[in-house]
Amino acid sequence: MDKSFAIQCPPFNLQLSRLDMRMTPMYSKRVLCFHLPNNSIEHKEYITRLLLAALRSTVEELPFLAGSVVPFSKDQPWLHDLVPHGAAYLVVKDLSREINFLDLRKARFSSVLLDTEQLCPLPEAFYLRDGPIDVCRLQANFVDGGLLLVVSIIHTVCDGRGISNVLRIFAEKLRIAQTGDPMSLSTACEETSKPTYSFDRASILSGNGLCGAIENHPGWTTLPLPFHGGSAETKTLCTTFHISSDSLRTLKQVASSPSSSASATINIPHPLDGTQTSSSDQTSSISTHDAIAALIWRSIMLARHRAGIISDRAITHFSQAVDCRTRLQLPEPYFGNAIYAIKTSLALPLLAGTTDSFDESWISGLQTAARAIRAEVSGATAGKIRDLLGFIERTDMEILTRPSVLGDTSIGSILFGSYFRFEMHELDFGEALGGKIEAFRLPSRGLLPGMPVVLPRLPDGGCEFVINEQEEVMRFFAEDEVFRRFASEQS
């Protein structure tokens, strides 16, 4: 029953922001796992009709999902534009002979069982050359006893929160489609009278006239990406880990406990207002998310050290994308890129917390990392974000501004991604799909080394995250007693 459906692009007028335009045209892929006990051909055809109706209605509301991303110009290959031509696609495949849902469930939907080429083939190239590239593709993979729905939306048009906003609308349309009322979704008559979708992201996500200076933003750089020969040959393993709700509470408690160590206070200057934030003042505000990030940062760097990739005195770097919607008071829902990359650095001995220099246990390393992260997240103020936007607007026709750790993520840096606060497990997709997802996963291939991702918080309060590292690095996680104290591999 392999099929492909194209939903042609309605007219729209969307002006991308500078953040949108400079985002690498890569697909963000999400695997939504549903249990479907009914394996009949008729039921699969019914689900297909529902998915198509929901996607069509979603495109009517958000027509840019059926647009195409194209090069902005030959002179600025790092910039991209969105044009109101193209289509959104629903691809349907029957993999019921190859994949069993109950087997996936027993393996806790392990990443190694989710073959990217089978579930959602990667495009031939991530970077646009001649274009155009479709914005949105859904691939419905029917397996024995379930559905693996892969949502692929290009990062140039939507960031992580933006895609979650799209899925919220899609889930609503899917529920409406199940009512059986043909008038419940948009009709052709209503479509002709509906005003053309129009939105100017550039006017609300801007520097507001600020000149901006790259020196104010350690998480960003205009330097070209370094080239590491032979990186394409590097073999990596993509593994999903789990932290129970009890372990998560303990982790936060450990990371946020007061410390009297010599390294407890780190003064981090903020160049825009001249103030300094003492990380010891951040102890009480350290979040569960900060604690998770600190554990992952520490664990990856120690594993790389044991694998011989970094030295025992290496300076390690942590970078994270901070959602700016609330800080900039953007209208909700805002679908575009609204992220600001922070960066903080620690020497490996401080991160490990087990050196001769300080009489400390591993706890101090975790606390120091969490405080450093919290200080930078808190320092990402609206003024600082506007300053970066001003710099990008002033220079983007001549140079590319990019996250500064890119190019070093397989060595001394990590670029931390997170869906932790995305309410994916709360979305109701309707009775036909069993209501809510059973698991949220990323495909096994497509993530770069050094780009760990925290998945949406589980209904029971626990957490899952994905680490993709070189094979010789991954084996050291099993030997890390601190890491194993909190996290277990999904298998």
From TrEMBL:
Pfam families noted in UniProt: Transferase
Listed InterPro entries: CAT-like_dom_sf, Sec_Metabolite_Acyltrans
Superkingdom to which the source organism belongs: Eukaryota
One annotated GO molecular function: transferase activity
Residue span of region Disordered: 260-284
Biased composition (Low complexity): 275-284
Keyword Repressor: no
Keyword annotations from UniProtKB, A to Z: Transferase
PANTHER family referenced in this protein's UniProt entry, alphabetically: FAMILY REGULATORY PROTEIN, PUTATIVE (AFU_ORTHOLOGUE AFUA_3G14730)-RELATED (PTHR31896), TRICHOTHECENE 3-O-ACETYLTRANSFERASE (PTHR31896:SF64)
Name listed for the protein in its UniProt record: Uncharacterized protein
